[in-house]
Design goal:
It is a single chain. This protein has about 575 residues and is of the alpha+beta class. It is elongated, with a radius of gyration of 35 Å. It is built from 12 helices and 21 strands. The strands form 5 sheets. A 7-stranded antiparallel beta sheet has the order 20-19-17-18-16-15-21, with helices on both faces. The two termini are about 30 Å apart.
Length: about 575
């Protein structure tokens, strides 16, 4: 379930129960749109933190016991928060209407000793998410995202502007509904049940609409105008029972998981009948549920943001080299004229003695083919000067060809390396992986700096991935060219098996044998990993080559991660992680 009004309602209740009368002892801003409040006096025995993110792709708010590293210099908004909120006592926490907004009221003693009240609004609204600090009269002091009239004509979020939540046309809080109002608001018009609920209420998302329909035994795609009276009564009854759960604070935080990669996991603060066939992982609190669900997503989002500029750099370099290769191959094609110019020079030498000067061409018999050749001449030059002119053009094109062959080879190698690096970026799930890729770009001369500042401590080297099959065989997977080199030539021994997606970029995968004969299931699992960690990850089937490691060779002078092999087996598999357990 998206971070909707139901989740916010449950989270608001939890924060109110656990934070009232606590204080903000410290405030930090780990990332541009993130805040971390250190709580003093909460109900946790150990350190407790309130984490907030207004990131457009991942808006969050929950309690956690994990502390994030903060920058040495606090941004301006963090300084404003410290001035007005640090040391402040939390008076109340409430959900605003049924919106995705939590209002936190706190009192703080100012520089002159006067006690003042402030409001802190956490707006968890996708790309419109924000954290806004106001005074007791709801006049904005500052916001983590300042919004001018050039950005929004509906609401300015700037200091000294009044705070308000824009009204959503045609929508109202579901908490205000009785049966008659529900019938008039929802059960009219040529709309599906899902659309009718979404159009009518604030705080309800697609999953909540599907749940109301499922509890009444109906499909969310059913049209309301075609419902019988019994169906309409059942729909209102489901709606009413869901609201009763919320009013009585009967929450059951859980994550719903599917074994299929095609079905995304969901979370909910209430039981979901519509997802009862999925694996259910229950939690003691909404915060722990949100933290578990979003920790991986937050990490992935941060990694994606950190790789974005690097990816753009690689894509730009790749586009440049592909364009360069086209030009070089065109120039190489032009050098095919070299032999023609050499022939012209030789024929002029052989038959030019009859020329008197001033001729525009010479017809001579090509002694290789026996056919006559018409050779253009410069009328201002003698026969020998024309011959010399053609020999010069021949020599120039010959030198150009020799140079182009080397340059084309280098360009193709660069394209291969950049393409493999681009693929590796898709597998990077750790900042150390990114650092290795940046270092590889630096060592190959693609970028000027390695990204490591002078005097900065080097990060610990990233390790290849490791997996265990169901019958206890170990499998190692390189996530970039350096790691590919490591798994193939340091971790693997001669009788281990080496796997790689056929003819496309991907990871080196090693199936360790430890002197035993691997099972068919182990071979299949290793091949599936090679398919998954390749350019073919999103395909239904990928062809994978596999061979004993002793057959894999490295040509001297080639770049890290590039190998050759001549005899191999192949199998076609689906890219998946289902048949292995990840270890590292």
């Amino acid at each position: 379930m998206a971070f909707d009004g139901i989740t916010v309602s449950a989270l608001s209740e939890e924060l109110s129960r656990r934070l009232e009368c606590a204080t903000f002892s410290k405030i930090a801003q780990p990332e541009k749109y993130e805040l971390l409040f250190t709580i003093k006096g909460g109900d946790s025995e150990g350190p407790l933190y309130l984490f907030s993110s207004a990131n457009a792709s991942l808006p969050l708010l929950y309690l956690t016991t994990d502390k994030k590293k903060s920058p040495e210099t606090a941004p301006a908004f963090c300084m404003a928060m410290r001035k007005h909120c640090q040391g402040g006592r939390i008076l109340s926490v409430e959900q605003v209407g049924f919106e995705r907004v939590i209002k936190l009221t706190l009192s703080h003693r100012g520089e002159m000793g006067d006690v003042e009240d402030f409001h802190l609004y956490f707006e968890i609204m996708g790309r419109h998410s924000n954290v806004i600090l106001t005074d007791s009269q709801d006049v904005i002091i500052d916001a983590i995202k300042r919004i001018t009239s050039l950005v929004s004509s509906v609401r300015e979020v700037l200091p000294q502007k009044p705070y308000f939540i824009p009204h959503q046309e045609g929508k109202c809080s579901p908490l205000e509904m009785d049966e008659e109002s529900f019938s008039k608001k929802v059960l009219t018009g040529n709309r599906t049940i899902e659309k009718a609920i979404l159009d009518s209420f604030t705080g309800f998302g697609t999953l909540a609409s599907s749940e109301i329909a499922a509890r009444s035994g109906l499909s969310p795609d059913s049209f309301v105008e075609s419902l019988s009276m019994n169906d309409k009564n059942a729909l209102y009854s489901s709606f009413s029972s869901l609201l009763t759960e919320l009013k009585e604070k009967r929450y059951s935080p859980a994550i719903y998981l599917s074994s299929s990669r095609l079905v995304s996991p969901e979370f909910s603060a209430i039981p979901l009948t519509c997802l009862s066939d999925m694996e259910i992982r229950s939690f003691d609190s909404v915060s722990s549920m949100l933290e578990a669900f979003y920790s991986g997503k937050n990490h992935e989002d941060n990694i994606r943001q950190k790789t974005e500029s690097l990816r753009k750099t690689v894509e730009t370099l790749l586009a440049r080299d592909n364009k360069t290769l086209l030009l070089q191959e065109k120039q190489l094609d032009d050098t095919k004229k070299a032999d023609k110019y050499r022939l012209y020079g030789e024929l002029i030498h052989a038959f030019g003695y009859n020329l008197k000067g001033g001729e525009s061409f010479l017809v001579a018999n090509d002694y290789h083919t026996g056919e006559d050749v018409k050779i253009p001449l410069d009328k201002n030059l003698s026969a020998m000067e024309n011959a010399k002119h053609y020999f010069k053009k021949y020599d120039k094109l010959k030198r150009t060809k020799e140079s182009l062959v080397d340059r084309i080879k280098t360009t193709k190698e660069n394209i291969e390396v950049l393409s493999s690096i681009l693929t590796s970026l898709s597998f990077s799930d750790d900042e150390r992986d990114i650092a290795e890729i940046r270092q590889e770009l630096y060592e190959h001369g693609f970028i000027k700096k390695s990204g490591v500042k002078k005097g900065q401590k080097k990060e610990k080297k990233a390790s290849p991935l490791s997996f265990r099959t169901r019958d206890n065989f170990l499998i190692y997977v390189g996530k970039n060219n350096y790691q590919n080199e490591e798994v193939t030539f340091k971790i693997a021994t001669g009788k281990d098996w080496w796997f790689h997606a056929k003819t496309i970029h991907g990871s080196h995968v090693i199936l360790k044998t430890e002197g035993k004969e691997p099972s068919d299931e182990a071979f299949l699992a290793a091949a599936q990993l090679a398919a998954y960690f390749s350019e073919g990850r999103d395909q239904n089937k990928v062809e994978v080559d596999y061979v004993q490691k002793k057959e894999v060779k490295k040509t001297p002078g080639t770049k890290a991660g590039f190998v050759i092999y001549y005899t191999n087996y192949s199998m076609v598999v689906a890219p998946t992680l289902e048949n292995v357990e990840r270890l590292v």
